[in-house]
Amino acid sequence: MSALKEQLYQQCCDYVSKKEADIKKLIADAQESSANETKSSAGDKYETTREVLQQEINLNLSRLNELNKLKTVLGHISPTQTSLAISPGSVVYTSNGNFYISISAGKIEAGGTSFYAVSSSSPIASKMLGQQAGYSFDMNGKRFEIKAVG
């Protein structure tokens, strides 16, 4: 189970790193475009273009800030920690899918099995946190039974 948890953890870290690289590239491209924008006789167009590029930079800086929060969450997860009760970093097998309680990174594959990386503040994780194998709950009209926790 430890190797599986480490794979899932690493995939979440890779997800954040890729997103971060993409956003940093967008910021650099927008900054370069802004620097290359020349003032023409159509001064309003120049100012409007620069403002749009600045808004794009600000939006991506905000996204970068959100990614830093995800890094912090991952920093508090120990992939080697085990517990019978579901907590951040837990691998949860249910009757309706498998989950890795960490960050919202979508569907990931590890050990030949599909998992959904979900934030501990997500609605489904909120129903599972603190619970153990054998616990059942309803979500969106579906019955989930926790089969195993790792």
Structural features, described:
The chain has 150 residues and is of the alpha+beta class. The chain folds into two domains: 2-75; 91-149, no CATH class. The protein has three helices and six strands. Strands 3-4-2-1-6-5 form a six-stranded mixed sheet. A hairpin with a 2-residue loop joins strand 1 and strand 2 (97-102). The longest helix has 35 residues, at 2-36. The protein is elongated.
Category by helix and strand content = alpha+beta
Largest sheet: 6 strands, mixed
Question: How many E strands?
Answer: 6
Radius of gyration: 21 Å
Shape, principal axes of CA atoms: elongated
Report, as a whole number of angstroms, the end-to-end distance.
7 Å
Number of domains: 2
Give the spatial strand order of the biggest sheet: 3-4-2-1-6-5
Helix-strand blueprint:
Layout: H1 2-36, H2 43-75, E1 91-94, E2 97-102, E3 106-110, E4 113-119, H3 123-128, E5 136-139, E6 142-149
Helix pairs in contact: 1-2
In a few lines, what is going on in this structure?
The chain is of the alpha+beta class. It contains three helices and six strands, in the order ααββββαββ. The chain has two domains: about 1-75; about 90-150, no CATH class.
Features:
single chain, 150 residues, alpha+beta, six-stranded mixed beta sheet, 3 helices, 6 strands, 23% strand, elongated
